[in-house]
Amino acid sequence: MNLYLSFSHWNHDISVRVSEKSGAGEPSPDFLIYLSFHMKQLEKEGRYSSFRMERALKGKLLRFRKSSSLPVSDITTDFIKQFEEFLIYEVGNSHNTVTECLKTFGKLVKDIYSSEEGLNCDDNPFNRIRFTRCQTERCYLSEVEINRLMALHLTKNTPLWHSRNLFYMECYTGLRIGDLLSLKWKNYDAGTKTVTLTMHKTHRQITVPLTQKVVSVLESYRDLFSTSDKYVFPFLKLHDTSFSLGKAICSATGIVNGHLKTLALRCGIEKNLSSHAGRHTFATMLVTKGANIYDVKELLGHSDVKVTQIYARITQERKQAAISLLE
Predict the structure, then answer these.
(1) Which has the minimum average pLDDT: 24-33, 154-163, 183-192?
(2) 45, 139, 174, 311: which could join 277 in a potential S-S bond, CB 3.0 to 4.6 Å?
(3) How far apart are CA 29 and CA 19, in angstroms?
């Protein structure tokens, strides 16, 4: 006997076979079938980042479960704890990676409990679990280190040269690498010296003023063939769908991060340099120089100032370190 769930949160009625009744007892929705269905919806909606998270979750569950079936009734508090231990000790995931994986897992289980009439939301085992993230050290560069990076002799139009320029723009605009990789000339207004775009992660529109040095970097890429729809940085090709674009951005980010580690090594920067360090550098420099935390929030495109305040804590630690020199 087949069991069907009708998920009302989609724009149209979709009935999905989620499990089969076997033996005695009531049938239970199958989480892995629902997960596969949900991933297809994410692909249609062009949400590659979320798709990637769920694909990773599915792979880990299949490896842990050693079965292609996972009835929701089997997802208990003990099951979740055992899966958490598997992620830590077998897969070797960090605390924050485990937390993100379990949060994704919990959200999908909650969706099933909310959609299936035969399930009581109060019985959801994730109701009794609280997720916490560890505060990790955020890598950022000083202005001295940025200048050292920019002084490094590189051949023009090489991958290392492009990666350095992109990172420099991160440091002085606060834009995420995905937004810079997909930056087009139509996003840049030479008259007002601003960049206006819709951020991939939050879908918020943001306008960022540019320093003259950043304008110079941008203008060095402009040529006779720079049409409005052409990407500024030559890492991506034009894509038909937002899903394929998201996939390409992910791949290009990995390439840029590899180049940044090479650049750090070549100029003696002993830090785990990655693309996101540019965004941290931008925020830390502004707060250190006395910028209003709410202005920094708007420039970063944060929805909550609490997220931005981490940079205020970083600079407070630096102040404390300076005072300790007097002891």
Answers:
(1) 24-33
(2) 139
(3) 5
Cα separations (Å) of 137 from 134, 271, 284? 10, 11, 13
Name the H helices within the chain: 31-45, 48-65, 77-85, 95-115, 143-151, 159-173, 177-181, 212-219, 242-266, 276-288, 293-300, 305-308, 310-324
Cα separation, 293 vs 11, whole angstroms: 40
Strand partners, 206: 197
Question: Residue 95's domain is classified under what CATH number?
Answer: 1.10.150.130
- Written as one letter, the residue type at 327 is E
**Per-residue confidence (pLDDT) for residue 302, from 0 to 100:** 87
Q: Are residues 147 and 118 in the same domain?
A: no
Per-residue pLDDT, 63: 96
Q: Answer whether residue 111 shows pLDDT above 90.
A: yes
- Residue carrying structure tokens 């992620």: 87
Token output for 37: 């269905």
The phi, psi pair for 298, rounded to 5°, reads -70, -40
Do 176 and 119 fall into the same domain? Answer: no
Tokens of 250: 């992910």
Q: How many CB atoms lie within 10 A of CB 200?
A: 18
